[in-house]
Write a structure and sequence with these properties.
The structure holds 2 protein chains of 2 kinds. Chain A is of the alpha/beta class. Chain A is 38% helix and 40% strand. The two termini of chain A are 24 Å apart. The chains are: A alpha/beta, B alpha+beta. The A-B interface holds A 19, 21-23, 49-54, 56-57, 60, 63-64, 67, 79-80, 83-84, 87-89, 92-94 and B 587-588, 590-591, 609, 612-613, 615-616, 619-620, 622-623, 667-674, 676, 678, 681-682, 684-685, 688-689.
Chain lengths: 101, 710
């Protein structure tokens, strides 16, 4: 999995590609460990194939942090990922936009 | 403890106490008796009193006559009075009682003799207060009593000389004709004095018509008065006596009968109370110790015996019930052990796609004598067997367990069906003292070819889907039953199953299942049901037969054990793709596992989305195994992947501690970010995205997921 971070002032965009799974989730976890000064966080999933429960776990932790300091959203989720968000109930917790919206 | 009717125990004295009844009865009885006795007594008393008076008055007249004669012998006085009286006309005489009449006799009343006699009479009179003593003459001609000298005494009426009154003829005759013996007296009811007794003694006789008497009247009214006084005293005494007798009888009654009865009643009450409390040890009736030597003691003895009898009876019942419960518990435990002894987890071989198998055993009683078994002898050989032990219940089940082990042991040694049956027969026959026997059918399927080698020891014909694709009886050669004779030889035969063919074996309980009228289900009906849809899976096949049997027998009691087994051979066709990989059970193996699975999926042109879902499932399951199953000890995970008819089956086998992920609690997906807990989410996602997920534990955790990929 590749992670590209883009910072525009207080806005942080994290672009992920490949698979956010058990193996790669710790990587992302490390990247979002320090979010000081960020009040708008965007995860770009346009190039992400799928997300596993460990990936969801990282997103949930990040959402909890951002709830205190600003906003967070996921954009460009494909069908598979949208389904995972729906099934797990994460669509209710995390703002997520599907790929072609 | 048995239920006793819950009415309140009445310990109070009954409304109509026996004691009161006896008291009343004895009072009435003794009072009546007293009255009778009193009447008799008073009768005797009054009679003796009256005769006492008569004796007294008779003695008085006798002594008076003596006194009168000694004093002055008034013969002439009496004669003079008689003469004057006799010379009167009837009209003159009728004036008796008047002054005029008295005046005619006044000279007599003034005479010296009259005064002397009258004085004598007076003297006699004062001694006896009831008596009126006088001298009178009975006139037989006119039936009259002529008074001569009747001096006034006390309250009695006195007559002047010459006065008379009428007297009954009978009385006159009695006095005239007295023979001088006994006492002369007569009773008369007079208007003036009431009942009266007149005693008399002759003084002088004047011709045949007149006789003078010394007479004495006793007024019986006085006697009656005395008797009444006596009677009053008697009644008073009687009342006291009656009360006393009543009390004595009642007390005696109480001591002898009522108290013992009350004690028995109290004992019965305590007995009932104790029983309600669950105390059964006491000897309630024996402890009373009634020694009355009568029916009450007898009653108490009988009650005591009854109590002992009831206690014994209850103890017996309790013991028998406990025994029954124990037997029933043991029986249900035996039933569980028996059903556990039969492989009952279906689908049985999820990693084997070449065949599908289902079996069921439905005992007529808690435990039965039927059994089936199946197991892989090696990778290419599946042994299946079905058998029926003669008889039912515990004996059959014991024999069944032994037979099952013997047959399975022989089969696992790699022997052929005929060899298995021959060897098993020898073992079973050798120890068979009870002359029980087993019918059995053993078949070994060569998975790679579909060829079944089978042998039949007196068992029902197997049913096979034949050339025409219809189910029919396969009339194989029958060997002798197991357990009958030692060293029997069994023949074996082969039949080939084409992919899609099924084999159906059963016990006689199926064909012989009967309805209320005794009509049997028969193999024809079995075939009918099987042929309704020859392509059904074994499980569906068995359920269809089972419900057909249920509908057929309806309310009839199940008579025999009912056992069925169905094997469907899928074959090794081109649609059946088997792959296997063994990896270390760590999360680092995920990439390798995904690559392995994706390689197979790509060959089957799996859509991208499905593939990512399967990849995600592999990721989650391996993460689980790596993080939980092998957290303490390391081990491998075997991944088998088969694709059959467009369905991919992935089986993960690990040797970690038993863990059924299907039993894990599902996460609550409705909670907010702050409340959400992490855990169980991975397996949850797999369950939701895969078509099916199964888990079983067979010395290893075996988790199978399936997903349609085409």
């Amino acid at each position: 999995m590749e992670i590209v971070k883009e910072t525009n002032g207080n806005q942080l965009i994290i672009r992920l590609s490949g698979r956010l799974d058990t193996g790669s989730s710790p990587q992302l976890d490390a990247e979002v460990a320090d979010l000081s000064g960020i009040n708008e966080l965007i995860f770009d999933f346009n190039k992400l194939d799928y997300i596993s429960s460990s990936g969801l776990r990282v997103l949930l932790g990040t959402q909890k942090k951002m709830n205190k300091t600003g906003t967070m959203k996921v954009i460009g989720a494909n069908d598979t990922i949208m389904e995972v968000f729906d099934i797990s109930g994460f669509a209710e917790i995390i703002a997520v936009e599907p790929k072609n919206a | 403890m048995s239920e006793i009717a819950d009415d309140t125990i009445n310990e109070s004295v009954p409304k109509n106490s026996l004691e009161k009844k006896v008291f009343r009865l004895s009072m009435i009885g003794s009072f009546l008796l007293g009255i009778v006795l009193m009447v008799i007594f008073l009768g005797i008393y009054s009679q003796s009193l009256a005769s006492q008076y008569i004796i007294e008055s008779f003695a008085l007249v006798k002594s008076t006559r003596l006194a009168v004669r000694e004093l002055g012998d008034p013969y002439e006085l009496v004669e003079g009075v008689i003469e004057r009286y006799d010379n009167l006309t009837d009209e003159q005489r009728a004036k008796t009682g008047s002054e005029e009449y008295r005046a005619m006799f006044d000279d007599f009343a003034q005479s010296e003799m009259y005064l002397i006699v009258s004085e004598a009479l007076k003297t006699q009179n004062t001694d006896s207060p009831w008596n009126d003593i006088y001298i009178g003459v009975f006139d037989r001609k006119r039936n009259a009593l002529l008074y001569v000298c009747d001096p006034p005494v006390g309250s009695s009426i006195n007559y002047a000389p010459g006065e008379w009154e009428p007297v009954g003829r009978k009385e006159i005759d009695k006095f005239f004709e007295w023979d001088g013996t006994g006492r002369l007296y007569d009773f008369s009811d007079t208007n003036l004095y009431g009942w009266m007794s007149t005693s008399g003694i002759p003084l002088y006789f004047y011709g045949t018509d007149y006789a003078a008497f010394v007479l004495s009247d006793v007024l019986l009214t006085d006697v009656v008065k005395a008797v009444m006084k006596m009677a009053l005293r008697c009644i008073f005494g009687l009342l006291i006596g009656t009360l006393g007798i009543g009390l004595i009888i009642a007390r005696r009654m109480r001591r002898q009968f009522i108290d013992p009865v009350n004690r028995i009643a109290a004992a019965a009450t305590h007995y009932l109370e104790d029983r309600r409390k669950g105390i059964t040890s006491g000897e309630h009736f024996n402890a009373i110790g009634i020694k009355t030597n009568d029916e009450i003691e007898n009653l108490c003895d009988v009650m005591s015996q009854m109590e002992k009898g009831l206690n014994e009876y209850e103890a017996n019942i309790t013991r028998i019930t406990a025994e029954k419960e124990r037997i029933s518990t043991e029986l249900s435990l035996a039933a569980r052990i028996q059903s556990d002894a039969l492989p009952s987890h279906f689908p049985a071989f999820t990693e084997r796609n070449e065949f599908d198998l289902y079996a069921s055993m439905d005992p007529a009683k808690e435990i039965g004598g039927d059994f089936y078994d199946f197991f892989l002898v090696d990778d290419d050989h599946l042994c299946i067997l079905i058998a029926d032990v003669s008889g039912k219940g515990i004996p059959a089940s014991l024999f069944m367990m032994a037979s099952k082990i013997v047959i399975a042991d022989n089969a696992k040694m790699g022997r052929s069906p005929a060899e298995i049956l021959a060897a098993a027969n020898n073992v079973i026959t050798h120890d068979n003292q009870e002359k029980m026997f087993v019918t059995a059918w053993v078949g070994i399927l060569e998975i790679s070819t579909g060829i079944i080698t089978a042998s039949n020891a007196g068992h029902e014909y197997p049913i096979v889907r034949n050339e025409e694709g219809r189910f029919a009886l396969y009339k194989d050669a029958h060997g002798f039953i197991l357990g009958g004779l030692e060293n029997m030889k069994y023949s074996e035969y082969q039949l080939k199953l084409k992919p899609g063919d099924s084999l159906f074996v059963y016990t006689d309980g199926l064909a012989e299942a009967s309805d209320i009228n005794g009509t049997m289900f028969t193999t024809d009906r079995v075939l009918e049901v099987l042929n309704e849809d020859t392509g059904r899976k074994p499980e569906e096949m068995l359920k269809a037969v089972s419900s057909a049997v249920d509908e057929f027998t309806r309310d009839a009691e199940q008579f025999d054990d009912l056992t069925m087994l169905c094997l469907k051979y899928n074959g090794l066709n081109e649609n059946n793709d088997v792959h296997e990989i063994i990896l270390p059970g760590v999360t680092e193996s995920i990439d390798q596992a995904t690559e392995f699975v994706n390689g197979i999926l790509e060959k089957h042109d799996c859509p991208f989305k499905t593939m990512t879902q399967i990849d995600m499932a592999v990721d989650e399951i391996l993460a689980n195994i790596g993080m939980y199953a092998y957290r303490k000890q390391k081990g491998d995970v075997k991944i088998s992947c088969t694709v059959t008819d467009g369905v991919m089956k992935l089986t993960f086998t690990d040797n970690g501690p038993p863990f059924n992920p299907l039993q894990a609690k599902e996460p609550d997906t409705t909670l907010s970010a702050e409340e959400r807990e992490i855990g169980g989410l991975g397996i949850f996602l797999v369950r939701k995205t895969m078509d099916d997920m199964e888990y079983r534990y067979e010395d290893a955790n075996i988790l199978t997921i399936s997903k349609k990929i085409a």
